[in-house]
Amino acid sequence: MIMNNKQPKTTPAFSSENAFNNNRSIYLRLLAWIPALFVAAAIFWFSSKPAVESTEMSDSVSRLILLIGAKLGFFRGNPAQYAELIELMSFPVRKTAHITEYLVFYGTVRFGLHFSYRTPYLRRRLFAAFAIVFCYACTDEFHQLFVPGRAGRFTDVMIDCSLVLVVTLICFARHYGQNQQEKSDSVR
Fold it and tell me: In this predicted model, what pLDDT tens digit does every residue of 149-188 receive, in sequence order?
């Protein structure tokens, strides 16, 4: 019987290999936040547009929706005649855009937290992601106080974060349900 007396290769705690892995880990943690930074910059850019430009952007989206709807047969007549309808659609289109961009921001923040905030408790990461998005929405509304024709309102923060809150609560509920299922399975 031949015995292998080789010891497993261990690396000292302060080796160059560990330093490389630690640096790589730090870089990966920082890189994970790049999508969130891009989305935050896009939100800032959209919010820095004066009210006239912002209204024109949402009206152009409303016109596009009406044009597509007319092509599909949902609307009759010339889309140029729908001035009242475009005005009515402006608010929902604008708020839908805000809700969507904050939901995307929430997803990118959760991505960043997944790599940089190591905790066994998913609930803490979910709460941290919601808190970051909520605080950013508050600072965004404050920023809009300085943009011509725009106003910062707390109701806008609540609207912007509404779907983020719903998604966070769904994630909490799913996580809680999974934990309850695991506990009941372990008792059996």
Answer: 998 899 999 999 999 999 999 999 998 877 666 666 666 5
11 phi and psi, to 5 degrees? -105, 140
Q: Taking the complete model, does pTM exceed 0.85, yes or no?
A: no
Distances from the Cα of 75 to the Cα of 58, 112, 159, 170, angstroms: 19, 43, 29, 36
Q: What are phi and psi of 187, to 5 degrees?
A: -75, -35
Q: What is the pLDDT of residues 62-99, one digit of tens each?
A: 888 888 888 888 877 766 677 888 888 888 999 999 99
- Dig out the tokens for 47 from the structure: 């919010």
Give the pair of three-digit tokens for residue 48.
Answer: 């820095």
Long-range CB pairs of 93-96 (<8 Å, 24+ gap) are: 93/58, 93/61, 93/62, 93/65, 94/54, 94/58, 95/159
- At 145 the three-state DSSP class reads coil
Give yes or no for a contact between 116 and 135, defined as CB atoms under 8 angstroms apart: no
For 15, left (φ over 0), alpha (ψ -120 to 50), or beta? Answer: beta
